[in-house]
Amino acid sequence: MSKNSSRGVDRRLFLAGSVAAAGFAPALANAAIGDLVYYVGSYASGGGVGVTTLSYSAAYDKWTEGKKPDPTVPNASYGVYSPKLKRHYVVNEQENGLIGVYQVSTNGSKWTKKGEVSSQGSGPCYISLDATESYLAVANYNSGNIAVYKLDPKSGLPLEPAIVKQNSGSGPNTDRQQGPHAHWVKFSVDQKYIYSVDLGTDEVLGYTFDAATGAVGEKFVAYKCEPGFGPRHLNLHPSGQVAHILGELENALITLRPKGDGTFEDVQYIKTLPADFTGASFAGHMAMNDLGNILYVSNRGHNSIAVFGLDTTGRLALLQIIPTGGDWPRFFYIIPGFDRLVVAHQKSNDVTVMAQYTNGTLRAHNAKFTVAAPVFLGPVA
Question: 114: how many CB neighbours lie within 10 A of its CB?
């Protein structure tokens, strides 16, 4: 799809959002609820030695640094929690990729490893659960494949053998697209498909999925990006009627609509950086608020977060681009119901906190913590 086609910004929504941003004050919701605990994952290559914890008191709007790094959770670059099984699944992003299964105390002070399995590839960087919390999928960046495990309903441990799906191909960027690089994987809202994003081949891949049997079909191309787009993540809207794909190399978003057969068509293209920015930057994390009407994207290099509003069709309008207060915002976490967004800066070795206005735009807040090579943030349930 051409960048000069209909993938433009809806100017009416942009203007409305800009005006609204000037008039709303930040509001802290649910202030009477007790402390919340989060863990920060880090890379050993950057000096990180495991996970650290942060506690948030909503009543006092105060953050407290908790337990020192835990060496039993190395290279914790992504994780997911199963409330049903009461287990944390955390990748160990190394050459021989691993998935650790942990039981964590409510204050985050004790991490007990219940098991560990291979990610079936190299450099695992994303992990997800299906809607029933019965299956787990992991994306291996270096080896360009995904693996799907069934979970034991009693222990929560992944059961062998895993189903492994290998991709092949390359892209025009010889530094980053010399081969396949699976960067994201998730189950569709209706549980009919598993989708994977491959940065190396500029593809969104789909696989049919049978939630009753765990069967995974052969890959098909659900959407083909323009050469060099470098897709990193896909956001599947809870409605199932729209999706957004983030291009790490092109610093852009594409709005997608499902065609009914597991594939997508594009309807909009929009950049995540200011039009006059000429430096080096790479799109990082993407996440949506609980209402499904605001989408956030981090820019590594420009060191900012771009805030987009969604209209009723899912099209995006840029509301704000704001500095994050650190270098290389690899990941951020939106605290549901508390109007706070927490950012992990991989290169400046710190975590900062931003406050959300009621219209979704952001402002700098008063909290900053030193953490070596932070690359992930997750709740301790």
Answer: 14
Q: Rounded distance, CA 160 to CA 174, Å?
A: 36
Amino acid 313: pLDDT: 95
Length of the chain measured in residues: 381
Map residue 44 onto helix, strand or coil. helix
The model's pTM is 0.91
Three-state DSSP class for 46? helix
Beta bridge partners of 343: 332, 352
β-strand pairing of 294-300 with 282-288: antiparallel
Whether residue 51 contacts residue 65, with contact meaning beta carbons closer than 8 Å, is answered with: no
**Which tokens go with 57?**
């008191």
Which residues, at least 6 apart from 146, have a Cβ–Cβ distance to it below 8 Å? Answer: 121, 137, 138, 139, 140, 164, 165, 182, 185, 194, 196
CA distance linking residue 80 with residue 77, whole number of Å: 11
Q: Cα(193)–Cα(212) distance, rounded to whole angstroms?
A: 13
Q: Tell me, what's the pLDDT at 298?
A: 98
- 22 phi and psi angles, rounded to 5 deg: -75, -20
Confidence (pLDDT) at 1: 54
With a cut of 50, which residues of the chain have pLDDT below it?
A: 2, 4-33
